[in-house]
Specification:
Length: 89
């Protein structure tokens, strides 16, 4: 499994081997801190002050073609919540 991230609706999916490298990229993109988890509907991931509605951050475990296998577990969510840096709009 790979961790797939897509920042915003127009972004491209990028794969990561673990949550730790994903946090580095998310902070580099200045996505900001999580305001809401998204578990269905438009997708799987989270919203921030900068990315919300249909323009959220996709974040899930998937196969090598970015097909959803499962969302993040509670420990992975907590890691993101504690390690994403505040970003300004």
């Amino acid at each position: 499994m790979l961790l797939w991230i897509r920042v915003g609706d127009a972004g491209d999916y990028q794969s990561h081997g673990d949550i730790y490298s994903a946090v580095d990229d998310l902070n580099a993109y200045e996505v900001g801190e999580i305001t809401k988890w998204i578990d269905g509907g438009p997708g799987v991931g989270f919203a921030t002050e900068n990315y919300y509605g249909y323009d959220f951050v996709s974040c899930f475990w998937g196969d090598d073609k970015a097909n959803l296998i499962c969302g993040l577990n509670a420990d992975e969510r907590a890691y993101l919540e504690n390690n994403l840096q505040e970003a300004f709009i």
